[in-house]
Write a structure and sequence with these properties.
This protein is mostly helical. Helices cover about 45% and strands about 5% of the residues. The chain starts with 5 loop residues before the first helix and ends with a helix. The relative contact order is 0.12. Keywords: Hydrolase.
């Protein structure tokens, strides 16, 4: 799906809100989904059986569509798959204003109308310039993009962690997955302990000493053989792993893509879910039965029946139900501090 990115889709601030819209990139996606609803029958499709599916930024987009508008209307989809959903901090109004002012300064503009009049090539250059100037600033730690969704009071009415905790999301069949070591690509391999400490303070500018004390109790440096490994663990939990837990659905740890048998099994689950709403209907013959979703519960079994959400674990040699890897003290910690971590 094509939608506006960076400064084109996610420039925010009060002047943007007064003279345009916030979260334009997400609104592009919504417009595309509504187009599908209007036209899918012309292509032999069923508007009542539309599955939205995205990974990383696409996975977070799925999250936002699940909570869009407070989930008060009928969604333009009937099921969802969010792969490794990337929940970066949602900048508050003050932070948005800082980024907007930086965009004006770096473009020699003084208004929204001036920015709109710039050629696309200049806006592309400005997009990168604003990102570079914002790195290591409040709310923009290492690995985080400065442009992203914000709480606008309309499409996104509250932080996603709050929305899912309060049940303000569309009740549709949902699959969530993630990979192992999600934080590595977004962590500085050369960072020292001192650099990592400052980075965490930039990442969570509204957190106080008690928050950071607890963070390093849960991720003690003494248990890791490098600052890189310690940082990628807490960053991966914060940005992707714990959001899979917050979505309260099935999570899957993927093995190597070189394992063709497991790849075929996982593909059959995903395609079956997208087509029928049930991962078992079209699964290949060797695929284990994936226990269905049941409302309520804590992910364990009661009287032989699956309760809550179920986890399918994929390793190099096996596939089947497993304990939820993200039901942890660490995710409880991030979940209890949504306003401090801004997601």
């Amino acid at each position: 799906m094509q939608y506006r990115l960076g400064i084109f889709g996610f420039l925010s601030g009060s002047e943007v809100a007064d003279n345009g819209v916030l979260n334009a990139g997400l609104l592009d996606q919504r417009a595309a989904l509504e187009w599908v609803q209007r036209n899918i029958e012309a292509f032999g499709g069923d508007p009542s059986r539309v599955t939205i599916w995205g990974g990383s930024a696409g996975g977070s987009s799925v999250s936002y569509h699940l909570i869009a508008g407070g989930a008060l209307d009928q969604p333009p989809f009937s099921a969802a798959i969010a792969e490794y959903p990337w929940w970066q901090p949602l900048l508050n109004q003050s932070q948005q204003g800082t980024v907007y002012s930086r965009a004006l300064h770096l473009s020699d503009c003084s208004s929204m109308n001036c920015l709109r009049g710039l050629p696309t090539s200049q806006l592309e250059t400005l997009n990168q310039a604003v990102q570079n100037a914002s790195i290591d600033g409040p709310g923009v730690g290492y690995g985080i993009g400065v442009f992203g969704p914000v709480v606008d009071g309309d499409f996104i009415r509250e932080l996603p962690s709050v929305a899912f905790q309060l049940g303000h999301f569309h009740d549709v069949p949902l699959i969530v997955d993630r990979n192992s070591y999600e934080g590595f690509l977004f962590s500085d391999p050369t960072a020292t302990t001192q650099v990592e400490t400052v980075d965490a303070q930039h990442m969570f500018p509204f957190a106080g000493p008690a928050f950071f004390s607890r963070l390093y109790q849960l991720y003690p440096r003494s248990e890791y053989n490098s600052t890189l490994f310690q940082r990628q663990i807490w960053f991966g939990d914060f940005i992707i792993n714990c959001p899979t837990d917050f979505l309260n659905s099935a999570t899957t740890d993927f093995s190597s893509a070189n394992n063709q048998t497991l790849a075929e099994i996982m593909t059959s689950y995903w395609i079956s879910f997208a087509v029928t709403g049930d991962p078992n209907t079209m699964r290949v013959a060797d695929a284990p039965f994936w226990a269905g979703y049941a409302s309520g519960g804590n992910g364990t079994e009661a009287n032989g029946e699956s309760v809550g959400f179920t986890v399918q674990s994929v390793t190099y040699t096996s596939i089947g139900p497993a304990p939820d890897p993200d039901a942890s003290e660490q995710c409880d910690f991030f979940g209890a501090n949504g306003f401090k971590i801004q997601n």
